[in-house]
Amino acid sequence: MTQRLTTERSAHRQEELGAALDGVRAWPSRKARQWTIEAVALAKQDAAIQAIVASGSAVRDVANSDDLDLVLVYRERRPCLRRPPVGVDLQQLEETEVPRKLADGHDFLSWAVRFGRPLFEREQWWSRLRANWNHRLSLPSAAEARKRARRAQQLHKEMLSLGDHDAATENYIAMLTQLARAALSDVGVLPRSRPELADQLRSIGNQPLADRLDDALTHRYG
Which of 30, 62, 81, 222 is the most exposed place for a label (fewest CB within 10 A)? Predict the structure, then answer.
C-alpha cells in the first residue's frame, strides 16, 4: 500500500510538472527539458524563488528554436541550481532588480514580460509584475542594437579569417537579427522572436533585410 501511494504521488508530481511546462512549444533538447523540470521542482520547495519564466522563440509558434531563454527571479538568496545544459540561457535576477531593469528598458526582461510564459510563480508574482508593466515597456534601443550589429559583423569577419565557418555564420545571423531589431524599433514596433522577425520586417516594407535574414536562417537549419 505504501509503495503504491508513493508511486501515485510521484506520478501526480510528474503530471503537475508536465502541465507547468506546457508553455514551452519547442525544446532544444531532452536535457534542456529535464533540467527545466528539475528547476521547477526546486522552485516549489525553495521559498526564495519567486518565478521561473520561459521566453524566446521556444515559447512562440515557430518552426525552429535553438534554445530556451529562462528568467528566474529570487528573493535575497540566489538559489543553488545545477549548471544549465547547452541550449538553456538562464538569467537569475533578485526581485528588487526587476523593476529597475524594466525602467531602464532591459531588452531581454521586457520581452519576457510581454511574451514570456511563467513555468512557476509564487503567489502570482510574475502575473502581478506583468499587469503593472505590460503597457509601459520600452522598445529596444535601436542605437544599442546597431552597436551590437557592428560588433557581430566584426566577429563574423574574424571567424571567417580563422576558417571557423560555423562561428562566422552565427555572428552573421546575430548581426542581421540586431539590424532587424533596430529597424523595427525605429518605427515603433516591438521585435518578436528571431524566426518571426522577417515577417515583421516585411510588414514595415523592409523586404531586403527580411530576405537576408530568411536566407541566413534557411541555410542554418539546412
Answer: 222
Task: Work out the pLDDT band at 150, boundaries 50, 70, 90.
Answer: very high
37 touches 17 (CB < 8 A): yes
DSSP state of 136: S
Cell numbers linked to 89: 540561457
CATH of region 2-133: 3.30.460.10
Handedness of CA 99, 101, 105, 107 (dihedral sign): negative
C-alpha cell at 64: 525552429
75-115 pLDDT per residue, tens: 999 998 999 999 999 999 999 999 999 998 888 899 999 99
Q: How many residues does the chain have?
A: 222
Rounded Cα–Cα distance for residues 41 and 45 (Å)? 7
Task: Fill in the amino acid letter for 66.
Answer: D
d(CA 218, CA 191): 20
Angle at 190 between CA 176 and CA 204, to 5 degrees: 70
At position 9, the amino acid (one-letter code) is R
Measured distance CA(28)–CA(101) in Å, rounded: 28
What pLDDT, in 10s, does the model give residues 12-58?
455 555 566 888 988 989 999 999 999 999 999 999 999 999 998 88
What would the mean pLDDT of 55-62 be, rounded to a whole number? 86
Which has the closest alpha carbon to 72: 35, 18, 29? 35
Q: Are 68 and 27 in contact (CB under 8 A)?
A: yes
- Residue ranges of domains in the chain: 2-133, 142-221
Q: What pairing do the DSSP bridges indicate for beta strands 88-94 and 68-74?
A: parallel
